[in-house]
Amino acid sequence: MDFGRVFSRRRLVRAGLFVAVLVLLWSSLALIVPAAFRSRVEAAALESLGRRLTIGEVVFNPWTLSLRVDDVALAGAKDGAPPLLEIRELRGAVSMGWVFRLAPVIDRLEIDAPTVRLTRLGDGRYDVDDILDKIAARPPAPAGPPRAALHNIVVKDGSVDFVDVPTGVTHSVRALELGVPFVSTIASEREIHVEPRLAFTLDGSRFDSTANATPFAERGNGEARIRLERFDIGPWLGYLPKTLPIRLQSGLLSADLVLAFAQRPALSLQVRGSVGVAELKVADAGSKELLRVGSIKAQIEELRPLERSAKLARIDIDAPHVLAVRDRSGRVNLMLAAATPEGQPVPVAPVPLPTTAASAGSGGAVGGKAPAAAATTSSGVTAASDASRWKASLAALSIRAGQLD
Global pTM? Predict the structure, then answer.
């Protein structure tokens, strides 16, 4: 009797049984994960948002680590009200890299037909105030952005309905398409096949960003351009919170921004270009005129949201006119802009601005009005703090034809 062959066969049988058990256990995740996912997500939503979340079918493939979630709905503010959020289908794929990085790494996230419904009830109240209050009551989060990496994010056929009950107007967003190559706070090398894009139709007007034609996977980077030309923000100012210390009254918004995504040599998201507002009018808390500005334009040299870094090439302010008024109690409206409704001062962090000897030695006021002034610098100024905060720098500041009454 050949004992070596017997032992060899036994080892093979044991190894085969061990592999079979592992395969069976791993395959059983297809049944375990959907039930656990549904129960935990629904419970977490109820606890953190105070609204009931329902999830339809959940399918998980343990061999490809892909997940599909159908018919997601977050309840409205009242019983019988339409859902606040609906998603027809959500598909995702998890990378095994999360095991080694101890952080979630998502290879793909696709959201089909998301629908959001918001309602303005009047007096500055919205049907999501209970959710916002719930979130505000949470303990402060740890400093710094969370460790995570999301790749190939796609939103298709999205829609938003904003119902303004006091005015009887409904603003709608249709055909929302969004493509984001990645959002990551950790180093990650994954295959990218999504081009940066933002497109939608707002109240019948179509907007579509432009993107490079070369596939992202071939060049390792991609850009999307966003342009706005004197967009009137006046019709939307009524939706700002009433608790703001100032009241924006009018303005024309312009922007020419480039969103650049790069995968090599490292993951990075960079924003550059210009943004500005013309014919800006601001009132104080008492709805009295506080500020008029001909135009404000900021030239962004480099904005990196993931690294919390911003470099501004220059800010040009043209024809600012500040109207200071003192009421009967002796308070000045400029001070009210930095005070609570009860008049208590609100501490404001000092922001260093670039200065030159010329601007420091400019003439004084004549006739109760400040003379036209201009201040520029090329040396720059940097405002930075610990790693949990933004680091910002401004190379040049120009103020022309300023006036103070």
Answer: 0.67
